[in-house]
Structure formats: C-alpha cells, structure tokens
Amino acid sequence: MMQYRASLCPSYEGKPLTLLSIYHILSLLKSSSHAKPIANTTDECCYNSILNPPSCPTINDEFSNQHDIQSRALFSLTGPWKQPRKTCAFQSRYSSNKVGTSQNSKQITASFCLISYGNAENNRVQAKIAKTEGKGRDLGAVKGEGEDQTMEENIHQALDTLIDTKARKLGSKRAAKKGNFRSSSGEVLTDLENVYNVTMKFHNNINMVEMALDKCGVSVTPELVVQVLNRCGAAGNPAFRFFIWAGKQPGYIHTNEAYNIMINIMGRMTQFETVWAMLEEMRTTDPSLITPETFVIMMRRFAAARMVQKAIGVLDEMPKFGCEPDAHTFCALLNALCKHGKVQEAIALFGDMKIRFPPNLKNYTVLLNGLCTAGRLMEAHSMLDEMVESGFEPDLVVYNTLLNGYAKAGKIGEAFDLLNEMKNRGCPPNTASYTNLIHALCTAERLEEASRLFKDMKRNGCFPDVVSYTTLINGFCKLRKLDQGYQLLDDMVQQRCVPNQLTYSCLLREHERREELKEALDLFQEMSENGCDPDLSIYNILLRLSCKLGKLNEASTIWNNMINNGISPNLDTYTIFIHGLHNQGNLADACKYFKEMVGKGVLPAPQYGTLKALLNTLLRAGKFEVAAEIWDCMKKHGSHINIYAYTIWIQALCSNGQVKEACSYCADMIEDGLLPQPSTYQMIMKGLRKLYNRCIADDLRARIRKLISEKNLSFKSFATQGVRKSTVKRKSRKKGGRTR
Known about the structure:
By secondary structure, this protein is mainly alpha-helical.
C-alpha cells in the first residue's frame, strides 16, 4: 500500500499515514485501474478486510476498547455496497437478516464515504464542469482514463472564471493586505474567500476539488483552516472536503480548534462513526490535541440527536483517550441533556453519579434551569430544598433561574413574591431579575405595568441593557405597537446601548406580519449602517417576507447579499427559499437549490413538507426523471431516508400513475428493513389491480409478509388497517367535495 501512496496521492508524500489518510488512499486504490494488491503483506490484509469485510459488526451503546472504535469507524466508512438502480449510488446498509442490530443500525448509511472520498462508481475519471457564473457556458466534461490533463485544464478554466466573477462581486475592499489572490481582471480576493468559493464550487468531486484548491496557491495556516470551516457553517460536505485537503498540505498539522469545529459539524450531520474515527486520528497524531472540550462537544451532539446513552457513554470513553472527566465535564453533560428536553434522565444521572462527582452549586443550578424550562416548578422547588439541605445557599443566578421559570409559566404573582424575598435575604435583584419580570408582563400583554417596572428598574440603580430593551420592544411589537417599539429603539441609541440582531429582528418580524417589504429593507439598511452585521435569522425573515409576497428578484438579491457577507444558509434558509421558488412555479431553481442543500450535507433527514411539495409538483408536471434525480441525490449524498421519506415518494408515484416505479422503490424500502405503512401498501395494491399485474403484486406481498413475520406482527391486521385507513380517507374526500 505504501507503494501507491506517492503515485496516487502526491500530497501525502512525506506525511504520516493516519487513519483518515488510509481511508482516502484505499478509495483511490479501489477506483484505480492500475492498482493491484501486493501479496503476503499486512497492507493487503488491511486493504481486503476494509473493502470486503467478512461480516457486519453490531453497534453497541458503549465502545469496549480501541479496536472496537477503529473497527466500527472502518465499517461505517467502507461497509458492504449495494449496486444501485439507475443513478442512485452509494447506498450502504446492514443486511436485514443480521441478529442483534437495532433498527437504527440497520439504516446506517455510509454517507461519510460520500462526504470524504468521492463516488464509488468512478471506475474511470469522470468530471463535469458546471456552467460557470458570468459566462453561462459549459466548459465540457472529461471522461475515461488517461484524461487527467484535460480535466485539469478544464478545472483551471472554470476556476479562472469563478475567481473573476467572485472578484467583481466582492471588490477589492474586502481583500486583506497579506495572502491575497489576484484574478486575471486585476481584482483581489482574500485567501478565505478564494478557498471557500473553490470548495463550494467543486466539493462534489474529490479529484476536482483537490486540483482546484492546489491551483489556488494559498498558504494553509491554522487560522485560515478555522476561518474556512466556520464559514462553511452547516455545509458539512464541503467543510470535510477542505479539512481532508488541508491535512495533506506540507508543513501543516490540524490544531485542536480545527478538529473540534469539524467534530461539531460531523455531529450535526449525525456522522458519529466519523467523529470517533477523527478522535482516533487525534490520538495517533498528537494525544495533546484531545481536551475535555472535545468530549463536551461530542456530548452536546449526542444529546441533540436524542442519543442519551451515547452521550453518557462518552464519560466512560474519555479515560481511554487519556482525558479524565472532571466536574466541569459532568456539568456540561447535565446541561446538554436538560437543554434538549432530557431533564428526567439528567436528574437520574445526577443521583447515580453523586459519589463519583460530588454535587456542587453549578449542578443544582443546571437542573433547576432544566426543570423551570420544562414548566415543572413544583419539582424545581423540591430541588431547591435539596440544594439548601446539602449546604448550598441560593445565589443570584439561582434566583434568576426561578424567576425565569415563573415568567415562562405566567405566574407573575409568585415572581414578584420571589423578588421581594431576594431583597429580604440580602440578595438585591439585578438587571436580569427585572428583565425576567418584564418578559412575564409582556407575555401577559400587560405592557403598562411592564413599562412602569422598566422605569422602576432605572430608579433602583439597575440600568437596562440590550436584553431589557429588546424584551420590551418585542412586547410592543407583538401587540402591533410598532411606533412605541421604534421609540424605544431611539431611546436605546441615545442611552448608548447598542442594539443587536435580536433587537432588529423583533421589529422586522412585525414588518413581516404587516407584509411591509420596503420598510423592512429600509430597517435592514439602517441596521448595516449602524454597524450591526445581520445574522442568519435576519436574512431568514427578509427571505420569508420576499417569498411570501412573490418578490423573487428581491429574494435572490437578499440571498446573494447573505452569501457575499460570508453567511452560510442553514436548513431553515434553504427551506424558505425553496418553498418560495416552488410556490411561484420556478421548479428549475427550486430543484437546483434543493440539490445544493443536499449536496452540502445541510439536509441530514428529509423534511416532510418540502420533499412532498417538490416531488408531487414535479410528478404532476410529468417530470418523473427530475423527481427521480431529487430522490437519487438524497441517497447519493447520505441523507437519512426514513419511512416517512419513502412514504412521500411512493405515494407521490402512485398518485401520479407511476405504480410500477412505486413497486420498485417499495422493494428497496423492504430491503432496507423498513415496513411500508398500511395505507401505502393498499395504494400500491389498488394500482396493481388496475394494471392487472398479479405477478408484481404477489411478489411484493410475499416480501412484506416475510418482513412482518420477522417483526413478529400479523399480516392480516396490517392489511386490515390499510383498508380501514383507505376507506376513511376516501369518505373524507367525498365529504369534503360535497361541502365545497
């Protein structure tokens, strides 16, 4: 394997062969026509065992040792491939007959391979250069072996065009004094803008993106890598492409900050096997790269994914990487669980770990906050009593936590009683204390009392901050009192309290409710002039308003402004824009941005509304091939295709007369170990009866019977339930038709 490292990957020469590097080289070896295994070497064993694993390992909640971590990561990256139908590539899943695997483990896809190492179907070099911005012409495609030089020339042409176009958009004002890239037109781009644009342009093909990044000629530094990864935001696929390329550059080694950012991005995409593989590489490269903060990030990502046992299991894995959990780490775990609605689990863990991690004031405060946020105030008081019995006196943070709980529950009387109790116990309230009460009064639509309390706060020596002003402005805006909101904004500026993005978003949301696009854009301009850079929430409001009014030109301008300001769209941003394009009948651009969203890894799991609307509209318009491309794009780029996504696609096909195609995808669904919904089964059977196709019906029925028996269910009740639901749905339609 070492013999091929320099020839296949010149950028690896002189670099240590790490775990992620091995994966990359093996993927190139598999797609290379001249790669031949070397007999009687350990590399051959490694190569064969990874590309052709003897069996699928079982994913447990806890990793027992280092070998387990590596083997699970290896399998996640290189599991058994199923040759797809048509263009739907790279579908990897566990066999449905494996014993001991959970429902989730049967559906695990090898999306990490899609992210990091290019297409497995590239048995020969394939690359298409998309129509470039500015010139709108196809630079051609490269196919077949031995055409690397042609591909490189085309990449260079596309890259030059891209750089010129972006330079004209950005201008030279944003260029830094050092490390700039000058385009052929003489404009200047920063290294950050240059690398980011190239990565986003070519991230779908590993060969193209690496050649394009090499041509940029930038000097890779830790600061640049961190900036690019932060700029990628939720776009995990391009971020990982760049991360892999940067790690192979001479003289550069990933820092702890870069690894932590990448682990956070992969965690957001629920690519946890990849996260463990990266952690293993950190230990191999330099054990000092692993810090408690790395594991805290992992805990938060597991908790956000509702994987409680995996989050707790991180504590047990830390010593294996030379990092002992401490009180701060344990408190961060409790906070992550409470933040994502797992308060009861956090309380149980707190009780079980009292010997290992003695209770402290921060732990009690975190649990109190979780209970108050969940509206469980009685239990919060019990927790407070337990805290006092344990010898911890409540401080200002604890009181403010309780005040916030009362405010959210609408218990204003109890909140004022607690405020007086704070004064009597020698714990004078601060600005945050008054702000909690103001928020409660605004929520109850008692704005006069909120305004009086706002003035009393000033008289008591607590000067309002940006949160206090924003809370009161939000209260006025929710009651449609926009003028009073602007008066508070002016007073805020006069008092030299700088408004933030949340302050402006309160006013912008009221303009959105009033459908006042011009006024919203004027406020947006004023915001920029006052030195408050708009964030993603601001752009989402403006995009939603523009799309709601059918102003696609304004929406496109806002979108481009957001991109040029270095803000990466997230799932909500894409959903807003795609729905706006779809509702205005612009299916071409809607499909384009949907594919872009999936390709960047922003869509970890298909959203019901967006997917259903797009597929149904395409099929009604007779664009079956385009709809199939949308579906294949999701599978190719590793989106989690669950039972709901299959239901949307199959029922859309049946509703539009594509029954045979629906049967084909239903067979894929069954092979994935997913049982179709009864209504979906009845819809397919009804369509096949109309086609008088008994052979397909019998085959599909036999497959479903087998899967149902494996799940210890009754086929008769399954079929009866489908008939009953279909009957109810048909009657509701007839009733609705008579009503109309």
